[in-house]
Amino acid sequence: MNTKSDLNNYNDNSCENTDEKNESSVQQQLDEAEIIEETGGVRSQNAKHLIHCLNIIGQVEGHDVLPVQNKTTKYEHIMPALVAIEQDRSIEGLLILLNTVGGDVEAGLAIAEMIAGMRTPTVTLVVGGGHSIGVPLAVSARYSMIVPSASMTIHPVRTNGIVLGVPQTMTYLSQIQDRITGFVAKHSNINEDKFISLMHSTESMTTDLGTIITGNEAVELGIIDEIGSLSNALEKLYSMIENEEVRYSDNKTQA
Predict the structure, then answer these.
(1) Is pLDDT of 254 > 70?
(2) CATH code where residue 126 lies
(3) Which of 52, 132, 144, 187 is catalytic?
(4) pLDDT over 50 at 255, yes or no
(5) Is 223 helix (H, G, I), strand (E, B) or coil?
(6) pLDDT confidence of residue 173
(7) Which of the residues 66, 101, 160, 195 has the least number of beta carbons within 10 Å of its own beta carbon?
(8) Residue 52 appears among annotated catalytic residues
(9) What is the span of the domain harbouring residue 188?
(10) Catalytic: which of 52, 131, 144, 155?
């Protein structure tokens, strides 16, 4: 038979446990919010499969720091995040949401190469825009999707600031262009000649070379695999996960 003192102690302990749980839940939410703000990544714990969602938005920031008013995706945040995702065995798939105006070419290509080299099932979904260096990023995953209202801008590499007017400068820019063209052709269904013709078109943009294409056109040209929405992208990831071989094995070869 419980005494009044025992009952009071039980109530006090119960309240303390509840307070601790509440504080833990609040701290967890704050930690998740900080991760989203810093890296643009979030994962859902209560889902059919554990999917990590990674955002590449605004302008891809490379070696130069952009003005504070610019919405940016920092490559020094994305690259280690990709390493962590690839190593984490609890993460079954990676969904990459793209809405970018482009940015630093080398930083964008570095991120694209890392995504292309992952064993984790990956799907990209272009929402809004996948412009400039966003094109290699969009095709870097195993499967790419785009919403019908999104657009993509394909244009030659350009630079700003002081430029040396020597043949070597043009050769350097041409080499960068070849790297982008080769990557896109390798990871999509468009050939290099067609991609270059879109890049050098003078019919689409009034003050620049290049082509602006819609979501449907991106699929018709073979740059993107499929028109789709968020639910389609997740279903594709689920299918890939369920048909995927084990990424890493703990079995060790016996001598």
Answers:
(1) no
(2) 3.90.226.10
(3) 132
(4) no
(5) coil
(6) 80
(7) 160
(8) no
(9) 27-242
(10) 155
